[in-house]
Design goal:
The chain has 132 residues and is an alpha+beta fold. Helices cover 26% and strands 36% of the residues. The protein has 3 helices and 10 strands, in the order H-E-H-E-E-E-E-E-E-E-E-H-E. The strands form 3 sheets. Strands 6, 7, 8, 9 and 10 form a 5-stranded antiparallel beta sheet that branches. The protein has a 3-stranded antiparallel beta sheet with strand order 1-3-2. Strands 4-5 form a two-stranded antiparallel ribbon. Strand 8 and strand 9 form a beta hairpin. The longest helix has 15 residues. It is globular, with a radius of gyration of 15 Å. The protein starts with 6 loop residues before the first helix and ends with a strand.
């Protein structure tokens, strides 16, 4: 296994590449952050489901992708904040993605949440990704 400097970007790239290739599912190494991102994608209707498995001591997360006809529900996953350049937003500055069609994923003091939930709870934090 190689050493990845940005595991969240690696996870988002795996999901993005799998949707473009028309794959039914994607498997990646598990972390709590990736699990929370997968939970948000499921809650917002971008993926069917996700599961965590522990095989041989290494945990992995499997995400079942969602398609409408032959078109993927996720058209773009874009990493915003990265290790070399963190991007933080206040509660009033959370960006709208495609006029509300897409979502932002934020890491806040109250946990990882979607932009809709962050606005409702009036919290800001690190802007992790845009999904549409």
């Amino acid at each position: 296994m190689s050493n990845v400097s940005d595991p969240i970007a690696d996870f988002l790239t795996r999901v993005r590449n799998a949707t473009r290739a028309g794959k039914p599912e994607v498997v990646a190494p598990y972390s709590k952050m990736k699990g929370e991102i997968a939970r948000i994608l499921k809650e917002e209707g971008f993926v069917h489901s996700y599961s965590v498995s522990t095989d041989g001591g290494h945990s992995s997360i499997k995400v079942e992708l969602k398609y409408v006809g032959h078109r993927p529900v996720i058209t773009t996953l874009q990493r915003v904040s990265r290790p070399g350049l963190r991007r933080y937003v206040g509660a009033g500055d959370i960006p709208r993605v495609l006029s509300g069609i897409g979502i932002s994923i934020l890491s806040t003091s109250s946990g990882v949440m979607s932009s809709r939930e962050a606005r409702r709870k009036n919290v800001g934090g690190e802007l992790l990704a845009f999904v549409w």
